[in-house]
Design goal:
The structure is a homodimer of 364-residue chains. In chain A, helix 5 packs across helix 7, helix 9 crosses helix 12 and helix 11 crosses helix 12. Chain A is built from 12 helices and 11 strands. A 7-stranded mixed β-sheet of chain A has the order 1-2-9-6-5-3-4, with helices on both faces. A two-stranded antiparallel ribbon of chain A has the order 7-8. Chain A folds into 2 domains: 170 residues, Rossmann fold (3-Layer(aba) Sandwich); 171 residues, Dehydroquinate synthase-like - alpha domain (Dehydroquinate synthase-like, alpha domain). Chains A, B: It is found in: Cytoplasm.
């Protein structure tokens, strides 16, 4: 195996909103050789953690393409995914005399991607947007699907838009500076694609989990590529989440309740999803859809990825209350993504008593 | 002529985002008989001027269709088209336990339509939206095109989205309570369609201008219908304003400068557009595209509609400065919509000196 994997590409096919995802080592420094949107100015939106690591490299590549390139470093953390922070992006865009062709570059993880994407969706009713995700979670998750949003005091991602980027550049070299815990959080969303869609990919992850945690470039490249492909396949069939696409939220209904119940930021999103998947698997078992061996096998891999597999003890009624606020609930009925059979997911309601039993069973 | 005109319909054809505009007398009380979106709850967003006139009628019709219907009355006026006001809509939606199928009804003029539409575009990344415009301007202009927005301290409509309603209901009876000045402001956008697209319609307006100002229902019905048809034709070819659609901004580049220069609210938007059309016509003449007789003919009709035809004396350099901030400008170059020939418009740059001469000529 050569240490530097070849450049991979995934084409996201959404008609006139189609775009490529490029995956490779050291892509950021060569960004000006890629098919960037035109525009005589650009703004790099990043955060104060990522800025000292990569903003300069990105900016140097971009000035070769756009006339003026400014950088805005937002404070780091989910708690800053607010209107106030969004407003700072608009202020800078207007101060620098931006127009409808000014390009926004999101350099960072999911928070930076979500807020920058939403800024691009709204600024002058839509300007071009390029994602340069620097976390594994953002590379496998935010790269595909066009979901952008900010939080509202009453709920996560309540205010947002479906807005596609023109290009996504996953530079695998950025994962070398990623903290261990965040790498594991990203693996949660990689593992997710196994039970809901592709058990062959699940087999591959089981074989390669140590290489992934050791950040072996070829393993990372495949994990990112295959995750994006699967997500693209699902999103391509249901861009605006009217049905099928909801299966991508496997583990998220329980996960969001964990995040909200503990207060955002205590657990990483991927950690909550990892544990949420264990709970969703337990629910699938309680509903008689999968057997306990399958649940144990999935749980073991989630654990090997370095993720928590026992939920915090918030109490079943608190979990249920929080889950009823979920955007997927309708007229107060919670809808869970369950594994109908290994490799296939579906959306289901479940009796409160059954869900409560799952919560009791899965919480430490 | 019968006093009550037949119900008119214009179909806006935008693929999966298509919707009908219904035009007629007294439609609001029969709204539940129309093809409304489903949804077990709804929110009527209106303003404190319109609420006492129509909110009750609308609510009574809607409770027959949706389980829960709340009303939120915003303060009246362009100066409230802000994030803070938008936030109030989100707060109420979340307090009432809304979901992704909750329907937003915009009951009012352009400000209510723009802000409610933007709220619908962003809330949970998009909920269904129905427009019930109660001003002539909103009926002929906001009904078609899906432009939604709020203002930013540095510029009008800077933050927004293209988002289509599922239905627009123009109840002509609401125009009976419209102040004279606002009726004239609406006529500016009706007259606009003549020089840029349809001189036969311009002839019709010349013949019927007194009937329109007297609010004769049949005349109003035709003016609203034909305006929506023309706008639909243009928007259908260019939904996201990459080219052709810009011609609908005829008079708006000068008009926005007037509004911004005097401070928003001093002149009504339609008044500024009326006067802006005179300036854009003068520019077309200076560029040798149309003759002075045509400019005089258009100016006479704008005056008969009760609109100002002389701009405020802000000084040419201030006008130019304000126009460079316009969303249509690119890399600092102002692009004007001019009349290339009677009934046909195009986008053009023009030398500052020429524009300055037009401004001097057209300002009182």
């Amino acid at each position: 195996m050569s240490p530097i994997p070849p450049r991979e590409q995934v084409r996201i096919d959404l008609g006139e909103r189609s775009y490529p995802i490029l995956i490779g080592q050291g892509l950021m420094a060569q960004l000006d050789e890629l098919p960037l949107p035109r525009g005589s100015s650009a703004l790099i939106v990043t955060n104060t953690t990522v800025e000292p690591l990569y903003a300069r490299t990105l900016r140097e590549a971009l000035v070769r393409r756009h006339g003026r390139v400014n950088t805005l470093a937002l404070p780091d953390g989910e708690e800053h995914k607010t209107w106030e922070t969004l407003q700072r992006i608009f202020d800078v865009l207007l101060e620098q005399g931006s127009d409808r062709k000014t390009v926004l570059y999101a350099l960072g993880g999911g928070v930076v991607g979500d807020i920058t994407g939403f800024a691009a969706a709204c600024f002058m009713r839509g300007v071009p947007f390029v994602q340069v995700p620097t976390t594994l979670l953002a590379q496998v998750d935010s790269s595909v699907g066009g979901k952008t949003a900010i939080n509202h005091p009453r709920g996560k991602n309540m205010i947002g838009a479906f807005y596609q980027p023109q290009l996504v550049v996953c530079d695998l070299a950025t994962l070398n500076t990623l903290p261990e815990r965040e790498l594991s959080a990203g693996l949660a969303e990689v593992i997710k694609y196994g039970p809901i869609h592709d058990m062959a990919f699940f087999d591959w992850i089981e074989t390669n989990i140590d290489a992934l945690r050791a950040r072996e470039p070829r393993a990372l490249a495949h994990a990112v590529k295959r995750s994006c492909e699967i997500k693209a396949e699902v999103v391509g069939q249901d861009e605006r989440e009217s049905g099928l696409r909801a299966i991508l939220n496997f583990g998220h209904t329980f996960g969001h309740a964990i995040e909200a119940g503990l207060g955002y930021g205590r657990w990483l999103h991927g950690e909550a999803v990892g544990c949420g998947m264990v709970m969703a698997l337990a629910l699938s078992e309680e509903l008689g859809l999968v057997d306990s061996a399958f649940v144990r096998r999935c749980t073991a891999l989630i654990e090997r990825a370095g993720l928590p597999t026992r939920g915090p003890r918030l109490g079943a009624s608190r979990y249920l209350e929080l889950m009823r606020l979920d955007k997927k609930s309708e007229a107060g009925e919670i809808r869970f993504i369950v594994v109908a059979a290994p490799g296939r997911a579906e959306l289901r309601a479940a009796p409160d008593a059954l869900v409560a039993r799952v919560i009791e069973r899965c919480c430490a």
